[in-house]
Inverse folding.
């Protein structure tokens, strides 16, 4: 069980990293929603119609702003149409898509370049020998994002083993909130599979596919002349 303990040490760091990505994702959604609400409230304050006329049977409205962009106390973060800004910050808009893409790429990179080699070294195998379906799916998504403009091809979609239900072939990878949550669950189930590699054969061991969350804690007890520790694994169904 020495190797199992070493793996749990590595996997605890990975679980902590995944949870931080969940936090970043939720915080970003709150920020996007706040941006959208602020601009929607600001539009009536800074713009007003100054003339209306009919041209070729269509109404033409001229809008003026009460704020002068040439004024020295006006600072431009960027210049964009308010409608485009609102659309980008809307639910499932461009900004949410970008943060989803970033997290998918970031999670796979952490797994492939850091966690996976460590697990392989502990087990005495090559990194390619450490395989988990959901994390393999993450690789396919990452490659589609980086190399195919975020579109998953029919060929790559057929290779997905766990996450195929979340995406359509030959379509952009654009998960909504529920689908992104399912991606996080699939990744945590993958971590559970690695843990259960050592204990899954024992009576009463849970199935990784039934889990929705995993927590790993190193509990240390200290007594006079004695110091030892052990791992506890918390599993949520």
């Amino acid at each position: 069980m020495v190797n199992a303990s070493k793996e749990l040490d590595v996997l605890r760091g990975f679980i902590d990293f995944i949870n931080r990505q969940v936090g970043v994702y939720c915080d970003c959604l709150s920020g996007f929603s706040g941006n959208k609400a602020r601009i929607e409230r600001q539009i009536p304050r800074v713009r007003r119609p100054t003339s209306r006329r009919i041209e070729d049977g269509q109404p033409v409205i001229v809008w003026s702003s009460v704020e002068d962009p040439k004024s020295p106390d006006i600072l431009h973060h960027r210049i964009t149409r308010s409608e485009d800004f609102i659309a980008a910050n809307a639910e499932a808009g461009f900004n949410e898509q970008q943060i989803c893409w970033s997290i998918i790429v970031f999670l796979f990179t952490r797994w492939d370049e850091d966690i996976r080699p460590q697990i392989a070294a502990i087990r005495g195998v090559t990194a390619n020998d450490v395989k988990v379906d959901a994390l393999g799916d993450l690789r396919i998504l990452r490659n589609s994002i980086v190399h195919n403009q975020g579109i998953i091809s029919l060929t790559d979609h057929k290779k997905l083993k766990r996450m195929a239900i979340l995406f359509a072939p030959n379509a952009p990878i654009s998960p909504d909130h529920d689908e992104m949550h399912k991606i996080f669950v699939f990744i945590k189930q993958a971590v559970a599979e690695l843990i259960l590699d050592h204990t899954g054969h024992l009576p009463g061991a849970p199935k990784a596919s039934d889990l929705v969350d995993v927590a790993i804690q190193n509990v240390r007890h200290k007594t006079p002349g004695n110091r030892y520790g052990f791992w506890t694994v918390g599993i949520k169904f």
